[in-house]
Structures are given as structure tokens and as C-alpha cells.
Write a structure and sequence with these properties.
By secondary structure, this protein is an alpha/beta fold. The protein has three domains: 81 residues, Winged helix-like DNA-binding domain superfamily/Winged helix DNA-binding domain (Arc Repressor Mutant, subunit A), CATH 1.10.10; 93 residues, 3-Layer(aba) Sandwich (D-Maltodextrin-Binding Protein, domain 2), CATH 3.40.190; 100 residues, D-Maltodextrin-Binding Protein, domain 2 (3-Layer(aba) Sandwich), CATH 3.40.190. 42% of the residues lie in helices and 25% in strands. It has eleven helices and ten strands. The strands form three sheets. It has a six-stranded mixed β-sheet, sandwiched between helices. A two-stranded antiparallel sheet has the order 1-2. Helix 8 links the parallel strand 7 and strand 8. Helix 1 crosses helix 2 and helix 1 crosses helix 4. The longest helix has 22 residues. The protein is elongated, with a radius of gyration of 28 Å. The two termini are 55 Å apart.
Amino acid sequence: MAWINLHHLKYFLIIAEEGSISGASKKLLVGQPALSAQLKQFEENLNLKLFERVGKKMVITSEGEYVLKYARAIKQLEDELVSNLGHAKDAGVKEISLGAQESVPKSIMAFAISAVMSVPSVKVKVIEGTGEELFELLLSGKIDLFLGNFKPLEEGKEMIYSLISKEKVSVCGAKEFVGLKRNFPSSLGGGKFVLPGFQNPIRHDFEKFMLEQGLHFDVTIEAQDTALLKELAVRGQGLVILGDESASSWIKSGRLFKIGTIPKLSEEYWLGMVKKKIDTDHQKKILKAIGN
């Protein structure tokens, strides 16, 4: 089984950059015979030929080029570790990780971050992803908080949820779609839409509404990121369904136009956590900052 000696990796990287054993020897202050022996051992450990010897020059092989990419990445991580060691010594600062769905509007994400920042001596790490991915990370203890537009329950886990926002949902579009305001919502029949994927609850609710109205429509583009959906709508790629908070600044700026509000349809955003995963006092401060 191949194994990696970090000294060998460093020697290999310098030899590749210098193009010769002699040049690497001068830079590393290691004798040429010793350096040649270290390289030979490294090649044997990997069971790969990393260089072709052409006179005094070392010409890297295709296998060597492959290893070199990883050697450079590892060296970069080593440099980052050394430069950031001071942060690790700051034991008084607690890191709280917030997993946020890609579809959550940035204004709501910023509000949630501000609530977490109400905890003294804390720094926040934000991880974006799909709801399913993030909820798995929450249950496995790899993130502390979950921010999304659904409130899943897990048997055997005591969950705490706080409603951050509940807003009406409207159909919006570029200026060319403004005429659809007349006879809304029947005017939506046959329309083209850019919508979030099926993992987004609002997609299910909207399709149910259209089915109840007997209206057919086309989904031309699917995307999870709300900002991307809005950009596509601005470019006339189709109509989009948005919470009023998410749409407000775009409507005020004239980039999007509200076609109509969908009756009885709302979008909710929840902050979730596993009880006792975070210090109880911290949980109370976060929930109080949200207004619960």
C-alpha cells in the first residue's frame, strides 16, 4: 500500500520546480546523494516513476505531473496552517456553524447570522447546500444550526425550531410579462416559469395551486439559488415565484414586476438546532434575538 512521507513530498516539489537535483540540493541545503536517495524511496513508495533523467536535468513524467498537483495543494494547506496557528490559540472564541439552504434569500440569511452573533465571543461559519445535505450534517453533529424553508423532524432527536420569516408568495417577471396582471391567476395558463427544484416546498405548493386552478404551465429552467432565479427572470427567461421579502428590492428597483400574489400560499424560513448540541444559554440568546 502506498504511503506518503511529507519530507519526500517537499523534496519532490522542489526538484520539480528547480528542474534538477543540483538546483534542489542548493535550495534545500541537502546533499545531492541524500536527495537522490530520498527521491528514489519516494518513487518506490508510490510505485511510480516521477522523473526521467536527461543528463543533469530532471524531466517530470505524466505520473509526476499528477502527483505534483497534489504536492502543491498540500504545500498551500501547510502554509495556511502555519499562518493561521494564532487563531487556534484563541480558545476564548467559539465557532458556531450555520448551514443555510442555497434557496434562502440573503437578507434572511443575514438576519439569522446576526441572531447567532448575539452570543458573546463567537464567530460564525456559514455553509451553503441543499436542505437534505445540511440536515444530515446537523444530525451528525457537523454543523450547529440549520436554516431552511422546511421543518423536518427526526425520530430520537429532540429538535428546536424557530420561525424566522413567513411571507406571502407572488408571481414576478420581467416588464414584458406585466400584461399578465389582467385576469390573474388564469393569465398564468400556458406560461413559462423558472422554478426551484422539487426539494423546495414552495414548488409543491405552487404546482398544487396551478392544478386546482386547472392551469398548465412549462418549467423552462430549474435552479435552487434564489438570486439566480431572479436574474433569469429579469432576463425574460420566465416567471418566478418569490416571497415578498425576497422580491421587494428587485421590484422597487424596477428590475422585476409583481404579476400577482398567490392566495393562501406562503413561504416559511426556519432556524433549527438539536437540543443541547449548543450550550443552552447560547440557544436561549439566539432564540431571543430572533424574537422567540
